[in-house]
Amino acid sequence: MLPKRHFFYFLFIIVTVIYSLTSCSFFTVSYKNKAKIEVEHITATGDIHYEIDIKDEPVDIFFAFTNVNEMVGTDTPDVQSESIVVNGQEFPAPIPIDFEYSAAAEGSMHAFINTSTRKLLASLHSDTISKNSFPVPGVPSFDYENESATFNDSDINDQMIPKNAHCRSVIGPILTSQGNRTLNIWVADDCWETDGTKKHLVTTEMITALEDKFLKTGLDNDIYDWVTTILGPEWGKTGYSNLIPPNNEITILLSDINEDNSDTGGVVGYFWAGNNFTASSVSDSNERIMFVIDAVMYANPSLDGSPTATDTTGWTDSAFWPKFVFPTLAHEFQHMIHFYQKSFVANATAPTETWINEMCSMLIEDILADKIGVEGPRGVSSLIGTAGSPGNIEGRLPIFNQYLTNEVIVTSNFGKIADQYADYSVAYAFGAWLARNYGGVEFLHNVVSSPYTDKKAIEYAVQKYTGGAESFERLLQRWGGAIFLSDKTDAPLKYQYNSGGWFTSTINGKKYNLGSINLYNYDPSPEIATSTSQLASGLTASGTNVYLLAKENALG
What we know:
It contains 11 helices and 14 strands. It is of the alpha/beta class and 556 residues long. Helix 3 (223-231) runs parallel beside helix 5 (320-345) and helix 6 (354-372) packs antiparallel against helix 9.
């Protein structure tokens, strides 16, 4: 945690550690009184010797050590100098946060979806699959209300099992930004208000609320239009005979994901690319462009997400879990679009690394928060563009602050480790900074539309916006400075989390907002070391920043 700062002048020294500290280099930083904030970047292959000319005004001096390598092992930075005494106040180690969500359920489901998708994409690019063009769109399936069908969905062991369901709503065709679309909503029979057996049951009112958020008559007034305006259509021609042809329909299945009957946490929703394949090539495919939402959590009427209520009396779309489900629709819709746009429009030859794909989904939640009317991953009221108030425990950022030095590039086991929520929170925090500094919705569009599936997608999106190249390493450095400066509304360009209001961006003539972020407003606040002894965890692989407040109120 960082002590409250009372001074207006700050010096940030951002050190890039190329490999190991085995040789020496020299760099002098002179602080100029006329500037409020000065950021210096140092690239080092060895020990760093520095002098800081502070002049007349007191300054706070910070170091951010950035590891640019994806290497095994750690190397702990140290800061020593006769002119700067590193004697900041010591704070206790972070206290783990108790989550009421089912970590095992979300982690295992994510692993199932990600692993399966990778296998499916690998098969697409193998020589055993023949390409086949579709000269005309597929024929609509024409679902109808009260129709019955059997869907494949996951059980508690993440194995696909058959679930009986009925179609409870068909909306469309409706004119959208991508042409006519039809929305089919199905509910598993054991989750429906008539003869259902689950803890909470889905009603017609809940179906109507879901329709109203995702797809309704009119343009630019629902999740479908808001997301596709940024990212493009969710499906189209692919040229592969083992993929279903486009029919301009989307299916949402409300089911008890994992069959756990949980109404307080777990997997809220998922998109699985296997459903885009023909059943002859993927046996568990439902042969639909679809995603699944957990019915039990969605139907929980509790205002605080607790399991205290035992029936649907008093359910409203402003209850805790509906407000969680609606942005989940946007989150999973990004995954759906990402699969098509990246694999078949951009012709990427591998799946997007999970940390980037999840970053994109959390950014779409962030971008649509004020339109949907939810706090989103920022955890601040959708009605205000400011950074909110101190003591905020909502959203993804309190967890990020607790795991500030976790790596960004998680190329394996994303979401599967003990602190799996840290992976999501770090990816969001990085993406939130990128979007607020490199074009907002344009940044997100450029990541998804690029042919790259690793960190090059980030570099590509930045270059498309700025016109100049910035390496991923330099972006990590800038991000480190932005974390220190997030309580400042006048931070330099490219170091901004907080403008004091909305960050507004436009794409295809439509305006979108991102709210300001002050990381010091969250509880816990950023875990920034105040002595070198607190840097014992060192630098880890895959892009990591380690932060040190070397001196407060330093005078020359």
